[in-house]
Amino acid sequence: MKIMSVNAGSSSLKFQLLEMPQEVVLTEGVVESIGSGEVGRYTIKIQGQKFVKEMVIPTHAEAVEMVLNDLVERKIIHSLDEIEGVGHRIVHGGNKFTESVEITPEVKEEIRKVIPLAPLHNPAHLIGIEAFEKALPNVFQIVVFDTAFHQTMEEDAFMYAVPYEWYEKHQVRKYGFHGTSHQYVAHRCSELMKKDLKDIKMVTLHIGNGASLAAIKNGKCVDTSMGLGPLAGIPMGTRSGTIDPTIIEYIANVEKKSLKEIMTDLNKHSGYLGVSGVSHDSRNLEEAINKDHNKRAKLALDLQAKSIADYIGSYYVYMQGIDAIVFTAGIGENSSAFRERVLNRIRVLGVEYDENKNQERGKEIKISTDNSKIQVFVIPTNEELAIARDVVALKKKANK
Ligand code: AMP
Fold first, then answer.
1. What are the start-end ranges of the E strands in 39-167?
2. What confidence score (pLDDT) does residue 116 get?
3. Which of 14, 40, 174, 176 could pair with 7 as two cysteines, CB 3.0-4.6 Å apart?
């Protein structure tokens, strides 16, 4: 059965078409610069070959229609009837959703209600959903939430020590993100360890442009580094991670900046980019260090590594031990230097790794030695597959 995994952003639409349950990717692509008024770009990958079209794409509805028609024209499917399910990635599910659900008017309303918590993402997701509902009106569709996996956190992990009314009136609490990825690699890790997830204390590190950690115990997420929004936690490509909130008031006063400008600085001009002044991309920072001994590039990477090690230490205490650590996402999967930086800082926990194995990139591998007290894995994430699996499971459950 053919299932589509969809990730609609404010001006983009990413998709993957999978043959399930065989878990084969038939094609994947992205439409960019939707609604910008400028020439947009549609890229589709078929059997390793990329095809690019450029044109003005006014709305998501047009983007969806264009993609679906193209799938038929390129004979990836014979007709739209072959698509039996669609899964949409949703960044914020508030505290209502603990798992993926079939889309109903009530579910859409709940996603709408939490727009204030994810003002950039959730409106775009809703537009994506409605575009697919229009194009494929009789097809089974579900939503998969980035926040759902983290809903098992206890109060002492998800509450902030702020006026309680903020929580009661405005749902101020920690939600966490990248849940689909953390959950996917956690399950994969338990398979590789041949142990039930319930019997493993694990920390998963999703480190890409956005980056977060999750602490997993008894098969459940018990803590995570992102918070009410995805700005919290460790420093990232362009995001600061958690900072002293006093800085905000101080910069507003000395730089005469508005709250909006400061939030833009923290989201877009901080992290690797802000500290190094070089780039948001870890590859460019490594190059600046190796070629020019760039001190600020090194500092940017060290700040992140320290923060990650601090989180791992705190999770070690919170879970009373760690059995396994998993690296995933763009940097976690590909950068051996990054993994080295982190692992060297947590040797005190009894971590030992094999330097040769750590040189491997982008493939499933255990990089810890047999003597290591914590097993360390690199596991490529696959959020699209996790979404497609949920579509199949919910479709079966709903008998549709
Ligand atoms: P993601 O957000 O998971 O797609 O990760 C994107 C980030 O991964 C990029 O900005 C790079 O910093 C990093 N990245 C991707 N490929 C590599 C690589 N081969 N080596 C080091 N870092 C990489």
1. 39-46, 49-56, 83-90, 101-102, 140-145
2. 94
3. 14
**What is the distance in A from the centroid of ligand 1 to the CA of 20?**
28
In angstroms, what is the span from residue 329 Cα to ligand 1's centroid? 7
Of 83, 90, 215, 183, residue with least CA distance to 140: 83
| Alpha carbon nearest to ligand 1 atom 23, residue | 331
| Correct CATH for 195-383 of 3.90.1150.10, 3.30.420.40, 3.20.20.70, 3.40.50.1110 | 3.30.420.40
Ligand 1 and 271: CB distance under 6 A: no
183 Cβ below 6 A of ligand 1: no
CA 375–ligand 1 middle distance (angstroms): 23
Active-site residues, by number, are 146
What lies within 8 Å, CB to CB, of 29 at 6+ separation is 14, 15, 42, 43, 44, 45, 67
d(CA 113, CA 123) in angstroms, rounded, equals: 10
Atom 22 of ligand 1, nearest CA residue: 331
Mean pLDDT computed over every residue of the chain: 96
pLDDT digits (tens, 9 = 90+) for 121-166: 999 999 999 999 999 999 999 999 999 999 999 999 999 999 999 9
CA-nearest residue, atom 8 of ligand 1: 330
Whole-prediction pTM: 0.95
Q: Which strand ranges, in their side-by-side order, compose the sheet holding 2-8?
A: 49-56, 39-46, 24-32, 13-19, 2-8, 83-90, 140-145, 101-102
